Amino acid sequence: MLSLPKLIGHRGVKNLAPENTLDSIELAHKLGLKWIEVDVKITKDKIPIILHDDSLDRTANSNGLVIDFLYEEIKALDAGSFFFNYKTNIFIPTLEDIFKFCIKHEMGINIELKPNKGFEIDNVKAISKIIFKYQDLSNFYFSSFDLKSLLEMKKIFPNFYYGLLIDNFDNNYSLHEYIKICNNYNFFNFGLNKKLINNEIINEIKKNNLIITTYSEKNIKLIEANDLWKLGVTSIFIDDPSNFKI
Q: What's the CA gap between 120 and 239, in Å, rounded?
């Protein structure tokens, strides 16, 4: 079974450096984090890059959908000015850029499959080509809110580790139905929004031998983290680990 640490850097350390950039990953490493999480989608020329949103609007000095731009165009953008409020030379990295850094520094990676809608299969195919090139990459797993992406990747790499991310329980799927999906497809991880977590839910998930991770829209504080670990959460996606002993 893949062993996850108590803390995983969320998009690097997104409260301390521009999210999903090499600067953020490097700072996570300097702070002592052993694992990081990044969001991966593809460009118009099918290059897997690290970016959370469907569009460039929020975190780059441009507008429009990522899928409509070549990587050469995207790399020329400023991916740090949104964070610092001044011009920087920080760029949007490729998945390969992240792999090279993490292999060199022996960091684990949670690869969140975050495709633009309609490009789920193209995203998986492009990412899988990069995975094939990096045979020395061992400490990683795939996660996604998009079940289709996970299942497409699992067709290519049936023996890798996979986690299903859940933001809410709605009329489509209940907790038990999500757990059934994880069991049916041999996923090892159940990732929950912190707002969903309570003792009853944690116990039900743990009965099914699933590793529980959690994330939040805001940084999870130390006192909250201790409560979550006591409940049975394995890993917390952290935006700023400054107050934690790593």
A: 27
Residue 138 carries which DSSP code?
Answer: -
**Res 171: pLDDT:** 67
The candidate with the shortest Cα–Cα distance to 40, out of 149, 190, 157, 118, is: 149
- With b for 16 or more beta-carbon neighbours within 10 A and e for fewer, the 1-35 pattern comes to eeebebbbbbbbbbbbbbbbbbbbbebbbebebbb
What residue spans of the chain are helical by DSSP H? Answer: 22-30, 71-75, 81-84, 95-104, 120-133, 147-156, 175-184, 199-207, 222-231
3 state SS of 5? coil
Block mean pLDDT (10 aa), the chain, length 246:
95 98 98 98 98 98 98 98 98 98 97 97 98 91 98 97 93 88 97 96 96 97 98 98 93
Helix (H) or strand (E) holding 143: strand 140-144
Q: What domains sit in the chain, N to C, each tagged with a CATH number?
A: 7-238 (3.20.20.190)
Distance of CA 112 to the CA centre of its chain: 4
What is the rounded distance in angstroms from the CA atom of residue 50 to the CA atom of residue 77?
A: 13
Residue showing tokens 């920087």: 88
Please answer whether residues 150 and 162 qualify as being in contact, where contact means their C-beta atoms are separated by less than 8 angstroms: yes
CA 242 to chain centre: 20
- As given in the structure block, the two tokens for residue 66 are 């990522």
Which tens digits make up the pLDDT trace of 8-42? 999 999 999 999 999 999 999 999 999 999 999 99
